[in-house]
Amino acid sequence: MGKTQKSIGTLILQIALGLLFIVAGIWTLQGGKGDEMAAAFYSIFDNDVARVISIIFAIIEMIAGVFLILRLFVVLATQLDSLLLVIIMIVWIAAIVLMDFIGDDGLFNNFDSGFLPWLNRFARHLLVLGAVLKVRD
């Protein structure tokens, strides 16, 4: 029974993560700041550099999301999806450090929004990181 629950849980995480990455990539390519990673890029680089990095990363995110969804239906003979997830994991960790700890509203900076909103944001960021670690296996 435990193995079935893990399989269903991993399946749900994989679908959610794939859709999250596809949508975030599309939003970023449409000119928005997309997700937390794009916002982190804008917090440390000027607009032009951040825009280029965000576009590159949005494409990586979308491809990773598509691979995650495709892996549900076909066996992929490539490790490209694992590489993309490792890249996303590294950048996501950097985004957590930038946004949740040293950014404008981070724990070690102004911390204007208060503890509960910060804790909520931090928990959501950890959920995505945990999902990436889980489905990467």
Number of H- or I-type helical stretches: 5
Annotation, overall tally of beta strands: 0
How far from one another are the termini?
A: 20 Å
Largest sheet geometry: none
User: Outline, from the CA principal axes?
Assistant: globular
- Beta-strand fraction estimate: under 5%
Provide the structure class: mainly alpha
Mean pLDDT: 82
Question: Uncertain runs with pLDDT below 50, 5 residues or more?
Answer: none
| N-to-C SSE string, H for helix and E for strand | HHHHH
Helix content: over 70%
What is the CA-atom radius of gyration, in angstroms? Answer: 16 Å
Secondary structure layout plus pairing:
Blueprint: H1 2-29, H2 36-44, H3 47-70, H4 80-102, H5 115-136
Helix pairs in contact: 1-3, 1-5, 2-3, 2-4, 3-4, 4-5
Question: What does this protein structure show overall?
Answer:
The model has no long low-confidence stretch (mean pLDDT 82). Helix content is 77%, strand content 0%. Helix 2 runs antiparallel to helix 3 (47-70) and helix 4 (80-102) packs antiparallel against helix 5 (115-136). It has 137 residues and is mainly alpha-helical.
Short overview:
The protein is mainly α.
What key attributes describe this structure?
77% helix; 5 helices; 137 residues; mainly alpha; single chain
